[in-house]
């Protein structure tokens, strides 16, 4: 996952002006291991910058995603963002539905996809959802506990 400094460095290397708001965004994502919705980010930013519009925040998220410092994943309850796992290495994700821990995977199914000749691919997404071992174990412990209570 990119740190605050790595996010800032990547943004300025790509010619993005580092405003105070963008610094705050970089810090927020550099220090958050999970995913944040645009609304979460807006709530965080709103306290610091009064009168800030949701559109401005959203536009910044888009720009940061386009530069590759943020990654966006579509969850069932909407789009969420997190700091990129790595900026220069093409990868996909396995994501825990419970704790949202993300495991980057280097396997890319694009190579195995037959693309029609009349189609030009510009980008693709591949995400796998499941449960990490910790969440799986916690869930089965709960089940066992519920079960033994039933027996009494
Ligand atoms: Zn990633
Ligand atoms: Zn988990
Ligand atoms: Zn790929």
TrEMBL record:
Annotated Fe cation binding sites: 90, 124
Keyword presence, Cytoplasm: yes
Pfam families, per the entry: FUR (PF01475)
GO molecular function: DNA-binding transcription factor activity; transcription cis-regulatory region binding; zinc ion binding
InterPro entries: FUR, Fur_C, WH-like_DNA-bd_sf, WH_DNA-bd_sf
Obligatory cofactor(s): Zn(2+); Mn(2+); Fe(2+)
SUPFAM superfamilies (alphabetical): Winged helix' DNA-binding domain
Coiled coil: none
GO terms, biological process: negative regulation of DNA-templated transcription; regulation of secondary metabolite biosynthetic process
Subcellular location field: Cytoplasm
Residues noted as binding Zn(2+) in the record, renumbered to the chain: 96, 99, 132, 135
Keywords: Cytoplasm, DNA-binding, Iron, Metal-binding, Repressor, Transcription, Transcription regulation, Zinc
Main location: cytoplasm
UniProt family annotation: Belongs to the Fur family.
Official protein name in the record: Fur family transcriptional regulator
Organism annotation: Paenibacillus stellifer
């Amino acid at each position: 996952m990119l740190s605050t400094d790595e996010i800032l460095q990547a943004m300025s290397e790509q010619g993005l002006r580092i405003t105070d708001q963008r610094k705050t965004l970089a810090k927020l994502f550099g220090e958050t291991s999970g995913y944040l919705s645009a609304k979460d980010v807006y709530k965080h930013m709103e306290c610091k910058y009064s009168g800030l519009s949701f559109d401005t925040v959203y536009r910044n998220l888009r720009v940061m995603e386009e530069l590759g410092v943020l990654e966006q994943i579509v969850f069932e309850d909407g789009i969420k963002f997190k700091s990129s796992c790595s900026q220069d290495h093409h990868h996909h994700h396995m994501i825990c539905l419970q704790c949202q821990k993300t495991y980057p995977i280097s396997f890319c199914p694009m190579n195995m996809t037959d693309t029609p000749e009349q189609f030009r691919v510009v980008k693709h997404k591949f995400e796998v959802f499941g449960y990490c071992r910790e969440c799986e174990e916690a869930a089965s412990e709960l089940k066992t506990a519920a079960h033994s209570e039933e027996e009494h």
